[in-house]
Amino acid sequence: MHTLIKHFRIAGLAVTTGSIRRNFITDGQAQGVPLAQLERVAKTIGLVDRMVAPANITALDLCEDATRRLLNEMNLDASSIDAVIFVTQTPDHSQPNNASLLHGRLGLSKSAFAFDLSLGCSGWVAGLHQAALLCAHGGAGRVLLCAGDTLSRLTNEKDRAADPLFGDAGSATIVERTGQATSMHFILGADGNGAQSIIVPAGGARQPTTDLTRKEKVDASGNTQHSENLQMDGAEVFNFSLREIPLAVQSVMQHAGYTPASADALVLHQANKFIVESIAQKIGFEKSKAPSGIVAQFGNQSSASIPCALIDALGDRLAANPLKLVGCGFGVGLSWAAFAGEVGPLTIAPIQPIQNS
Amino acid sequence: MKTSIEEQFKVLQGEVDVLAGATLDTPLASLAQWDSLAVLLVISHFENVHKVSLSGAQIRACRCAREIFNLKPLSK
User: Quick one: A185-342 is in which CATH superfamily?
Assistant: First the structure.
């Protein structure tokens, strides 16, 4: 699905990460994995450190912290926000949604609407699309988009395939209506036939929690999981990423009239260095224009990874000037969402770990 | 010019480290580090070099590298 949305801008970005640093090599050695094997994976996939949240911190807390820091940096009052969209796969409760809880915590106006988007790694771009629509067509002047997860909570520590990949983070993005002739192109898509490739099988309405759903099993590769853990078929996800994402990115670039040479950067969901570099290469972007350094510092941060990459790799430039950006989030669903358009200048609150109270 | 399967295998060995000491007919299951990362590297190699998509399930079902080269690519 292609959409062209006009008269909005991204006005501010902030990211709050988990506060506990975990190191891939140290953790692996503690579990008895041979060093050579760890170094081989670390080098290929780009795993070094990841930042996870303490047990009492949720995606809601991480996003609230990012929001408060961003509003402070922008000198904005929470009462000026007309809607809040919360993108997460790890909400505090099955109901009410996180957006309503954040609405209450921030003391937003009763005329401000609040809803969640149940998406993971594609979610920041999909949420931006929704926020932009509200600004361009729905009467909102300012929308708060929060996107984040605590995926480290869903993986099994004894699953050496999935557990070392994920960090926890929450992002806040302020999207505003503008009278200027700004525009952004979006391409959104899904492939529900791949739903089993990234799944938490139990713990929801289809398979409620029982003693059996927490019973651990060891797979053929020696990794331990139970049915309430995040299960991911890495090869199938990689396959999907190489099949669909270059097509979506090339399509959105064509709509915007961008080429790998004319665009300033390609900001992909930071699944891991190997996937980001493989997709960028297939589209024809030089490595220097396609940031891939988030996973080595923070882990795969789900829907917070694109805003984190924007701040980490391009923050200084975005604070000063508009950049021609192309980006794409992709993952659970399976789903993807790509954008192309000018972003900046904007306000940035730096990437910070949550202060644990 | 079409290269032989032996020549194509040499290029694959250069990118997938665990195949370094193997032949086209070495049982993949006998290689110590024939794991999910190796499967990813094979998928990546076939995408980049041969411009074809193979699935993880297809590759995991192969008993040796020769069978990988004989796989029918997924439709694009």
Answer: Thiolase/Chalcone synthase (3.40.47.10)
- Amino acid letter, A279: I
Tell me if residue A281 falls in helix, strand or coil. Answer: helix
Q: What size, in residues, is chain A? A: 357
The pair phi, psi for residue A322, each rounded to 5°, is: -75, 140
**A37, A235, A243 ranked by CB distance to B40: nearest:** A235
Closest to A235 (Cβ–Cβ): which among B17, B33, B39?
A: B39
Superfamily designation of domain A2-183: Thiolase/Chalcone synthase (3.40.47.10)
Question: Using CA atoms, how far apart are residues A263 and A276, in angstroms rounded to an integer?
Answer: 17
Cα dihedral A18, A24, A27, A33, rounded to 10, equals 160
Instruction: Quick: pLDDT tens for A209-224.
Output: 999 999 999 987 788 9
**Which residues on chain B place their C-beta less than 8 Å from a C-beta of chain A?**
17, 33, 35-37, 39-41, 43-44, 47-48, 53-57, 59-60, 74, 76
Q: Any catalytic annotation for residue A255?
A: no
% of chain A at pLDDT higher than 90: 90
Give the CA radius of gyration of chain B. 11
